[in-house]
Amino acid sequence: MEKTRYPVPDTPPPPLGECLPLWARRYGDHTALVDGEQRLSFAGLDHRVERLAAGLHRLGLRRGDRAMLQLPNGIGFVSVCLALFRLGVIPVLAMPTQRSREIEALCRLAEPTAYFIPATAHGFDYRPLAASIAATRPALQVIVDGDPGQGPSSFRALDDVDGEPARWPAPAPGEVAVLLLSGGTTGTPKLIPRTHADYFYNFTASAALCALGSDSVYLAVLPAAHNFTLACPGVFGTLACGGTVVLSATASCDVAMPLIARERVTHLALVPPLAQLWAQAREWETSDLSSLRVLQVGGSRLAPALARQLSGLSGACLQQVFGMAEGLLCFTRLDDPLNTILHTQGRPLSSRDRLRIVDEQGREVNEGMAGELQTRGPYTIRHYYRAPEQDALSFTADGFYRTGDLVRRDGDGNLIVEGRLKEQIQRSGEKIAIADIESQLCALPGVQAAIVVAVPDPLLGERICAFVQPAGERIPDGLALNQALSARGLGRLMLPDQIETLHAWPLTPVGKIDRRRLVALAMAADRAPPLRRYAEQQIRVNSAPLELAARLAGKLPTRHYTLYECRGEWSIGMDAALSLVVDARGTVHHSNGTSREGSRPCAGIAEALADIPFTDWRAYGRATFEFAHLAYGIHATSDGEPLLRLSIPQSEIRLRDGLALIRSLDPAALPGLAALVMAGDIPTRSPLGKAIGVLENREAEARFKQQVSAAVGEMQAGDYQKVILSRAVEVPSSLDMVSSYLAGRRANTPARSFLLRDGDFQAYGFSPETVVEVDARGQVSTQPLAGTRALAGETGEDARLQGELLGDAKEIAEHAVSVKLAMSEMSAFCDTDSLGVSEFMDVCRRGSVQHLASRVRGQLATGCHAWDAFEKLFPAVTASGIPKREALDSIRRHEAQPRGLYSGCVMIVDSDGALDAALVLRSVYRDGNRCWLQAGAGLVPLSTPEREWTETCEKLACVAQHLHTAAV
Ligand code: OOB
């Protein structure tokens, strides 16, 4: 069956730690690695690895230990990996895009003694991530390729790890050499133990098959931590032949294509979505790619049309690679006929690979039929790392690995991958092949690409959802697409039940299409019919929404409501049909009597909200400042009041220009609400009551200035960089909340405003900024404001103050630090590439003050939701300080009372995943007969008590100027 035999070295395999000295002896001065402007010879690399291994040994790393390696493509990655091999320490190869949740899970499984990170990469700072991982693992050594920064003392610079070379006992060939991440799509991570012998075979045999030699130059653009890039033949296969490895930290064609030309790259590996981008880029990218000899594409299905396009792209030979981190590798051969290369995923690397294609009962299917591929062979694992339960599912009794891939074999023994076993939709008892629908959809005009997923469905079991990438500007119509599919002869059962349009596919860390995320998107876009829905009625109105909202608020038939103004809509939620509260221990209590305990209340809230049995709901809620103590583990005394509350209202009124929408879970309540709105729409002359003044007292001034001095002292000693200290001012209880809200709002230009009543507790306010905004598509934005000047209402003076604000180094520095913190917080839950600042240092006017404002945006990463964003971004840095934990602690110590709602948030959350949280500043609070205002100032080491006192006075003026008694 094999047409060509390739020589495979027949000497016994050395342990991986002994490879490099061997290569260095053989290839000495030849260039081994190129990383940007750095070049390292084999001898140079060997020397560096020897010293690094000795340094790591001095730090206590020993044979059999595990070390988490999360480095981007670069010399650091290769040297650390080889140094660990030298010691017999087992690298766990994490992807650079993984974040705390995944790294935590890997650490629990592998219990590493060391963790290698870059200082920063692709705009993400790995040091806070490592600090959070190390916080619960005192023995974990964190080694930073770059500046370790101000991290904990367990952080060390990679450059400082050094020692005198020595010899360490070599591991046996059958011992585990490296732990690879499984590319599987289940939630729990699996680690793949590859031995010295099997991995050596993996890369040397692959290198021979790909005709690598000492004149070869391999460009690593996919993450080197992935098996494809590392050893198929990849980095190690190239080094084993004396070739040169060029490491690119990005796969972007703008960088990589010129690199191919500069380094005369001969071998390159891509995944299909990336290959498609590269093919498109050739329309304008004109770098000389003539050096390329082999272009490998693998990792997911390569459409024959794209394969054809790629094979004509340069003089390179296209090679399809069907592989898995678990072992088995199939390649098309370089001398295969073009048809084989375009239409098959090749045949196994080793003649000792055993393959069988089985049906659901595990019986081998007839020649040419499709079934699940099972495999066993010299470099395929027999079990996962520490996962006996998973092993029982993934391996047969006779040691075959169940790949879960649906394949068939052509007459020459080449495999054709039809899809995943799970890529069959079980719709009403029928089995439907996803690939068939996808290829039919792709053939339609107006469709650039299509992905079909199975979505759980209460009626059908699973429904067919097609995601379509339009070829041009026009969004294809779902109905028309289904008609076109029928016209092409697709059976009724195979027509998609749901069609969604997407302009770009969500991708996994190596760049494969993330089908799990697509299923989640499909579910979010079309929730199953729920139990209850709101009855709705629209009414035309004449009054401006603010005026109408205020008139209604005075007359609502309830003592429990929240009014929230957001983007031109005043939305009022009344009485709770269902509520959630978070207590001081972080437990989430549901009004149905259930509760969820756990270290992450936000995750508990998200879970509880996912189970709400209504459709199209909007929750209204608020969080106290002290809610943040939970996330930062600050122990605070509790007055028993909930830290966060959310309720799904019984009824709602949403007001916009000219239109009122009333909604209620009880249809019988609509007429009463409609009458209320119509009555409120008739303008009445309601004169304001008497103005109320705020009395400042000297004692409070002295106390505040004293607190400022104390905190400034701590900052000058380097304890933290910034803190916001605040003070409360009592106001007479004759204050009328509703009319004061109206008067204050007329005179103010807030980002958000609110007015709420919950029994005896009332508050209203004019938020200068939001804590976080997440829309239904997962776009997150936050708007750090820092830097303040007064706004007097006189054009000349205001412009002068604005100029001063934009030119004041202290204000600018303070602002820049807030933006940086927002970026770093958002990188915990956003796709790194999506992060950006869309408004930088705009001056925004809020009532009697003006601020420096920037907006940081990003796209929620796969598997993350709005509550992950809330958890990280709350409390607003503007109202707490930097670093947040130290600032929270300082506030707790210096301020006499818990803040409660001040500097917490009021928010709305929608059933489509959107969340909007307004920062509570410039507000008025009332609890029974006590009424008060509160304002703060941002302190930095250069702050003076006098100026900060003035700043609090300026901010108080925003609301204090508009306080009134009730009209008589
Ligand atoms: C490679 O490895 P993993 O572990 O990330 O993913 C393995 C799975 C396979 O089971 C299969 O479902 C899919 O990825 N896959 C392909 C494919 N190559 C891999 N599906 C269709 N066509 C292909 N050519 O992805 C991997 C490891 C080593 C070399 C190449 C790829």
TrEMBL record:
Pfam families: AMP-binding, AMP-binding_C, Chorismate_bind. Residues 437-512 form the AMP-binding enzyme C-terminal domain. Pathway: Siderophore biosynthesis. Keywords: Ligase, Membrane, Transmembrane, Transmembrane helix. Residues 701-955 form the Chorismate-utilising enzyme C-terminal domain. The chain crosses the membrane at residues 71-94. This is Salicylate synthase. It comes from Microvirgula aerodenitrificans.
